[in-house]
């Protein structure tokens, strides 16, 4: 069996529009942090620490090192992640929206289908007809619970500013097409399922039509769905005949959660 990583990293060196910071405490620095934490719990501990007292000295530890520690300050929408209905609005289908830890895990390990949409331009949206044509090309009929992956090739832009401005969106008609065939999860190799901001806002200013603003996301208020954003390496998958695992990290009360998405292809 071949295992294909379909995920992008949380990378504080890559271009991002939201603030991302990874605080890295080295093994050497960890000795000092350990003492600060321990002594902060003691009476007058902080004063003693500032005066140079230590409970555990570096000489007390193997190689004079403690354990490394990384602290991530990041939105849940950086890195490969699953979005659920709470992200789209407070209600979905007339009920309180569900959060990411409520995603049924049985939906997250299913047969996968890759649809080639690399011909779609950044200002365009993927519509139902595009999905139907792609399925016809590979002679495949969707089954309930298939995880459908929309391959645009946009992951090659990750780390650059263009990653946020040069990709096609997903039209609500395409979402309907999938939901009507009992698809619970679909994924994209773009940073979002709506067209880039520059196209949506330009059209809104020209037409004064609010329907052009985030139509795919807001459609989640009408019909409940889950989608994966920021996938990668979809071009390494066959069209079908593989499994996808996309289990979300269990974070309480969030509209999205990070996931290490993986494809399993029989050799």
Question: What would you say this structure looks like, in words?
Answer:
- The structure is a single chain.
- The protein is an alpha/beta fold and 267 residues long.
- It folds into 2 domains: 2-15 and 76-265, Putative cyclase (Glucose Oxidase, domain 1, 3-Layer(bba) Sandwich), CATH 3.50.30; 21-73, no CATH class.
- It is 22% helix and 22% strand.
- It is built from 7 helices and 15 strands.
- It has helices spanning 27-40, 45-50, 85-88, 128-138, 172-179, 197-207, 215-219; strands spanning 2-5, 21-25, 69-73, 81-83, 91-92, 95-96, 109-116, 125-126, 147-151, 169-170, 185-188, 226-229, 240-245, 256-258, 262-265.
- The strands form 4 sheets. It has a 9-stranded mixed beta sheet. It has a two-stranded antiparallel sheet with strand order 2-3.
- The protein is elongated.
- The chain starts with a strand and ends with a strand.
